[in-house]
Write a structure and sequence with these properties.
By secondary structure, the chain is α/β, with parallel strands linked by helices. 42% of the residues lie in helices and 22% in strands. It has helices at residues 15-27, 38-48, 64-72, 88-97, 109-127, 158-169, 177-185, 193-207; strands spanning 6-11, 30-35, 52-55, 79-83, 101-104, 132-135, 138-141, 146-149, 152-153, 175-176, 217-220, 224-227, 231-232. The radius of gyration is 18 Å and the shape is globular. Residues 130-229 bind DNA.
């Protein structure tokens, strides 16, 4: 048995999936607390003080999005959705409710484990973050509002800085279109998706080696964007 890697609350009504995921997580050293309903999930999340929560959306007593919203009202614990719902609208609604990532069924256990590790790394890094981030040869100092690429300064407009700051502070997490629009332009512009597409393309042109094949600023089609391969600087 590996050393204790953390506590995970798993809210899922399918016994077969619970058994599969629990076995995989325990092999990785996690302690898993299972819940079959939204009510049980809220009790477990409130009493176990987990390092991460996995939630199915199709629970028998309540929609999983409400569980996410309830947990977010008192905790910033990473939340990963594991659901058979594949519609973009469902993904967006769950992420807007406060989830950090979304994996659809059927799923591969190695991918689920990778997503969990990424969220736990993100939380660990964020807790010690100084506001300085490195992505390959890119360096960002958010408090100083500076960016450089290969040692050369990169000029970012005020809105570009807001967008990349939002992505970097939650590196690895999917940030929805509405969340990015609110960060960049304010809550009255959360439906102006064309603004966002234009500015994200500009950011990629300034920051990526090849804006057509980005390595750092990735698109989650129909949902939003995420930044990957981030290290504290």
């Amino acid at each position: 048995m590996l050393d204790h890697a953390g506590n995970i609350v798993f809210v899922e009504d399918d016994a077969h999936i619970r058994k599969l995921v629990r076995g995989a997580l325990e092999q990785e050293g996690f302690i898993v607390h299972e819940a079959r309903t939204a009510r049980e999930g809220m009790v477990e999340a409130g009493t176990r003080k987990p390092d991460l929560v996995i939630v199915d959306l199709g629970l028998p007593d309540q929609d999983g999005k409400q569980v996410i919203a309830d947990i977010r009202s008192w905790s910033d614990v990473p939340i990963v959705i594991l659901s058979a719902r594949t519609q973009e609208a469902e993904k967006v609604a769950a992420l807007d409710a406060g989830a950090d990532d979304y994996l659809t069924k059927p799923f591969g256990v190695p991918e689920l484990l990778a997503r969990i590790r990424a969220q736990l790394r993100r939380r660990s890094q964020a807790s010690a973050a100084t506001g300085r981030f490195r992505l390959g040869d890119l360096l960002f100092d958010l408090p100083a509002r500076t960016a450089s690429k290969g040692g050369e300064p990169v000029h970012l407009t005020q809105i570009e800085h807001r967008l990349i700051s939002t992505l970097l502070r939650d590196a690895g997490r999917v940030i929805t279109h509405r969340q990015l629009l609110a960060a960049g332009w304010g809550p009255s512009h959360t439906e102006d998706h064309h603004y966002l597409r234009i500015y994200m393309q500009r950011l990629r042109q300034k920051l990526e080696d090849d804006s057509a094949q980005p390595k750092y600023i990735l698109t989650e089609i129909g949902v939003g964007y995420r930044v990957v391969n981030v290290e504290p600087a």
